[in-house]
Amino acid sequence: MTAPSARTTPHPDASTEDRAQDVVARILARAGTAIQASGDQHSAHDGDQLDLDERAALRRVAGLSTELEDVTEVEYRQLRLERVVLVGLWTRGSAENAEVSLRELAALAETAGSEVLDGLLQRRSAPDPGTYIGSGKAAELADVVKSTGADTVIVDSELAPSQRRALEDVIKVKVIDRTALILDIFAQHAKSREGKAQVELAQLEYLLPRLRGWGESMSRQAGGRAAGGEGIGSRGPGETKIELDRRRIRTRMAKLRRQIAGMAPGRAARRSSRRTGAVPSVAIAGYTNAGKSSLLNRLTGAGVLVQNALFATLDPTVRRAETADGRLYTLADTVGFVRNLPTQLVEAFRSTLEEVGESDVILHVVDASHPGPEGQLTAVRDVLRDIEGVKDIPEIIALNKADLAEPETLARLRTREPGAIAVSAKTGAGVAELQAKIAELLPRPAAEVDLVVPYSRGDLLHRAHTAGEVISTEHLAEGTRLVARVDQALAVELDAAARAAS
């Protein structure tokens, strides 16, 4: 995309203004973004990618918006992101940090199906409490929207309800903040029943304090002498329309919470069955579009959807894998993270994130080719810190997309994170080293056995090979002599079988 002219707030320092203009120009040119310009690239390990074909079969059609010119005339508006203008504040830090944040916002907007037309980056010490960007900048933004024909403005922050309304009143088009944008992407990509319920709950939590009445007719309650002095018989409806909507939303939220809670026993039962079989688990966590699904496909051949987009996969996927010595374990792909992940989503997806807290090893995937990989590390760990039990679980840092990353970046990340492994899910480089590291950190069976298993109990011998660590076997006349490390439950069964045969 050719970059339109960038606009910034005038600043006494001409060099600062030039830097801000350069930032916006690079963002709109999409150079160096987390979404690579080469598009989706798949390897033989990614399978047929039928889910990707299904997603591509439905696309948003531009130019079909029915938005009114004055957005204040409408109470409810479906979130349709088509032609958008980005707005960001550069309040602190370097120009590069502001650039990375707006690049990510542009990538999020394109993932939601919109076309980025223009952008404004304002240098100020703090957001304006009224319109977030100030009245003068809001008027300039209105001119930009009118000249470009945009129907949506996306702000790179979470707006207070009053700020969003004030900004909409000035620019006369729909205003969406970063949180609403992420929620819209989640709503598009959720497929499972649980995922859809979690997204809907997060959307309702976001919408509840932002309901907007339709003029005074929807918020006025008249009764008694207040009703023009008419008294009895002229009272208003009692519950206003906006209050009725709020009550309905709270009722729906309560129902969704019950549904999500009702799905918890099923997840617990599946985890319990894996625990009963003494199968260790590895949870894949990381920033969105870091290549978690690609790495899962490379390690297990799962054929999970792989797309060059943010939040391409939301529903957790659990697949079997095995170490070089034959020990089985499970790999669980979890939802991706992002900077300033909406708190509504963190709460709604807490049940999904339980997979991380219940795992034996966390495989933390980092996009080493991203402009700010250290920010990715911090953002993911900020979320994981709130999950119970995570601090006691060993973590492996996988620097993915090493084939695209600069050698200096890889060296810097390895210095910051000793033990990090550079891998490429696309080429397979470093995958063998990663598998060896996973095998090293997986919990080892606690009980050591040295006994003879009768030939009639080959099922126990098979379980020892798959769930335990076999040191040696020897075939004797009365059975198979097994020296191995297994879990306590299997050790009891093996001992009983050996005693029964003796």
From TrEMBL:
<dbReference type="InterPro" id="IPR030394">
    <property type="entry name" value="G_HFLX_dom"/>
</dbReference>
<comment type="similarity">
    <text>Belongs to the TRAFAC class OBG-HflX-like GTPase superfamily. HflX GTPase family.</text>
</comment>
<comment type="function">
    <text>GTPase that associates with the 50S ribosomal subunit and may have a role during protein synthesis or ribosome biogenesis.</text>
</comment>
<dbReference type="InterPro" id="IPR016496">
    <property type="entry name" value="GTPase_HflX"/>
</dbReference>
<keyword id="KW-0547">Nucleotide-binding</keyword>
<protein>
    <recommendedName>
        <fullName>GTPase HflX</fullName>
    </recommendedName>
</protein>
<feature type="compositionally biased region" description="Gly residues">
    <location>
        <begin position="225"/>
        <end position="236"/>
    </location>
</feature>
<dbReference type="InterPro" id="IPR027417">
    <property type="entry name" value="P-loop_NTPase"/>
</dbReference>
<feature type="region of interest" description="Disordered">
    <location>
        <begin position="219"/>
        <end position="239"/>
    </location>
</feature>
<dbReference type="Pfam" id="PF01926">
    <property type="entry name" value="MMR_HSR1"/>
</dbReference>
<dbReference type="Pfam" id="PF13167">
    <property type="entry name" value="GTP-bdg_N"/>
</dbReference>
<dbReference type="GO" id="GO:0046872">
    <property type="term" value="F:metal ion binding"/>
</dbReference>
<dbReference type="Pfam" id="PF16360">
    <property type="entry name" value="GTP-bdg_M"/>
</dbReference>
<dbReference type="GO" id="GO:0005525">
    <property type="term" value="F:GTP binding"/>
</dbReference>
<keyword id="KW-0342">GTP-binding</keyword>
<keyword id="KW-0963">Cytoplasm</keyword>
<dbReference type="InterPro" id="IPR042108">
    <property type="entry name" value="GTPase_HflX_N_sf"/>
</dbReference>
<dbReference type="GO" id="GO:0005737">
    <property type="term" value="C:cytoplasm"/>
</dbReference>
<dbReference type="GO" id="GO:0003924">
    <property type="term" value="F:GTPase activity"/>
</dbReference>
<dbReference type="InterPro" id="IPR006073">
    <property type="entry name" value="GTP-bd"/>
</dbReference>
<feature type="domain" description="Hflx-type G">
    <location>
        <begin position="280"/>
        <end position="446"/>
    </location>
</feature>
<dbReference type="InterPro" id="IPR032305">
    <property type="entry name" value="GTP-bd_M"/>
</dbReference>
<keyword id="KW-0479">Metal-binding</keyword>
<dbReference type="InterPro" id="IPR025121">
    <property type="entry name" value="GTPase_HflX_N"/>
</dbReference>
<keyword id="KW-0460">Magnesium</keyword>
<feature type="region of interest" description="Disordered">
    <location>
        <begin position="1"/>
        <end position="20"/>
    </location>
</feature>
<dbReference type="GO" id="GO:0043022">
    <property type="term" value="F:ribosome binding"/>
</dbReference>
<comment type="subunit">
    <text>Monomer. Associates with the 50S ribosomal subunit.</text>
</comment>
